[in-house]
Design a protein that fits this description.
binds zinc ion, 8% helix, 36% strand, 492 residues, four-stranded antiparallel β-sheet, five-stranded mixed β-sheet
Length: 492
């Protein structure tokens, strides 16, 4: 008498639930068969072996048979996703998968999580494990039944980012680790202390900067606020000299003083303001003194005191001098600019200015010759942010890639995660005083060091607060994190 264990793993496509049943029966006299893994499954088998090896575990899939079958039924359950059958007489584990169901179309990670569960039974000999974490999530992908634990759920919106949980679940799968992961806790990790948290700052488009005097400024689409020494942000109103607080963008000049551009669509002009150091603003420019009256400004950056670049929705690029009130207008007809909207402008200390269109990068070395940067094979998507460091590096990101332009204008790019678009989104970049690059992302605050990304738990605020929209480190080395609320934290 030999024993065969049947096990099934099911995703009900509309309810997004994984139902699993456990069942045993007996069988005799089945012939021994050789292992076979179809091409579509081989990458997951290879990843399984590699992830095991990374954790010091040796596994062999040599005898494994993987087969496809539609409409798998077992013990009254229909349309099962997969089935792992371990036969001692066959001496061969067999996994049967129905790849016509929704899970197979739900992305690389969903396929991996389902296949790894079955491999957990067949190759690692693991039974079901239904222990819970502090936040009541299952502690193991070997749970009997639940939604997918680290893959994006089929049909859910892209804001559901769970890939950072994968490292923990694979540790648990191969090593049966029982350490609570940081994302199962509501508190920040030990190396971040929250000093204060404010409701006042409204998204979207939050930008933070600090004047040389120490005053922090926080702008968003709806308001401009300041904070002195970490106090609750105060919204700037009409008493500051501002006519409107709608859609104000801010920048620093080379003296570290604040300038503001206001593009309120309700007003027939744009205005440029300068902070006088005492929470009052002086109007420096009004757009009807510029030739481009009423054009809404897209990107905006100061080069030195009062001089600034801006781009318009009409695809013009303007260099405006405060001291002479003169301006230079560039477009595809009078320069080598492409006929495209310029979305980002970054003036560097060394005199270069970098311009970003939707997915092109241009460099002006100071003579208004806008050279297109060769991005090689790693073409960027829509540019999210550009920042410079004091070594002459320019960091540029789209939602998935991080690229560097060095002081010689050479471009190189790294894909941040080996997964698809819906798993991590870059929202902000920041370079600190020691030229360390920080990434505010949909899956937490990350530091980029020597080509690798810090772990989710290294700077975690706790799962509910780890969608970072904007990030800044102030002169006191405090972290300012926009994550729905504005959080000031002190790293340990
Ligand atoms: Zn199972």
């Amino acid at each position: 008498m030999t024993k065969i264990t049947f096990e099934a793993f099911r995703i009900c496509s509309h309810a997004l639930l994984v139902a699993v049943i456990f069942f045993t029966c007996k069988s005799e006299n089945e012939p021994t068969r050789e292992g076979y893994i179809p091409d579509q499954i081989q990458p997951y088998a290879d990843t399984f072996i590699a992830e095991a090896k990374k954790r010091g575990v040796t596994v062999s899939l040599d005898n494994l048979i993987v087969e496809f079958e539609e409409g798998i039924e077992l013990n009254g359950q229909q349309n099962l996703t997969g089935l792992c059958r371990n036969s001692t007489s066959l001496n061969t584990p067999v996994i049967i998968l129905d790849t016509t169901l929704g899970w197979w179309q739900s992305g690389e990670l969903a396929r991996e999580e389902v296949i790894f569960h079955e491999l957990g039974h067949c190759i690692l000999g693991r039974p079901h494990e239904d222990r819970l974490l502090e936040n009541d999530n299952y502690a193991s992908i070997m749970r009997t039944s639940s939604p997918l634990l680290y893959a994006k759920l089929p049909g859910t919106v892209s804001s559901v980012f769970k890939v950072h949980r994968r490292e923990y679940y694979l540790d648990e799968l191969f090593l049966k680790t029982d350490t609570e992961p940081c994302w199962a806790q509501t508190t920040p990790t030990a190396n971040l202390n929250i000093i204060s948290e404010f409701e006042s700052q409204q998204s979207p488009n939050v930008k933070m900067l600090q004047e040389a005097s120490g005053t922090m400024w926080i702008s968003s689409s709806w308001q401009l606020s300041y904070s002195i020494d970490g106090s609750a942000p105060t919204v700037i109103d009409a008493t500051s000299g501002f006519e409107t607080d709608y859609n104000t963008r801010i920048g620093l000049d080379h003296n570290g003083e604040l300038w503001a551009l206001n593009t309120d669509y309700r007003l027939p002009y744009n205005t440029i303001w300068k902070h006088d150091g005492n929470l009052h603003f002086d109007e420096i420019y009004r757009s009807d003194s510029m030739p481009l009256t009423n054009d809404q400004i897209r990107a905006f950056a100061f080069t030195s005191e009062g001089d600034f670049w801006y781009s318009t929705w009409a695809s013009d690029l303007v260099f405006q001098s405060a001291n002479t009130s003169s301006n230079l207008i560039f477009n595809s007809e009078n320069s080598n600019l492409p006929d495209a909207l310029i979305s980002h402008i970054l003036p560097m200390q060394d005199g270069r200015t970098i311009f970003g269109t939707a997915n092109q990068l241009l460099v002006d070395t100071g003579n208004y010759n806008f050279e297109l940067l060769d991005q090689g094979e790693s073409q960027m998507g829509l540019i999210v942010e550009m920042v410079g460091d004091t070594r002459g590096n320019i960091w540029v990101s789209d939602q998935l890639h991080l690229a560097r332009i060095n002081s010689e204008n050479q471009f190189s790019s790294s894909r941040l995660l080996p997964y698809g678009l819906n798993y991590m989104r870059i929202n902000d970049l920041f370079v600190d005083r020691s030229n360390q690059l920080w990434i505010g992302s949909s899956t937490g605050l990350r530091r980029w060091t020597d080509g690798s990304l810090s772990a989710y738990c290294d700077f975690s605020l706790g799962e509910s607060k780890n969608v970072i929209e904007a990030f800044f480190i102030d002169q006191q080395k405090r972290f300012w994190l926009q994550s729905g609320t504005l959080i000031i934290a002190q790293p340990n």
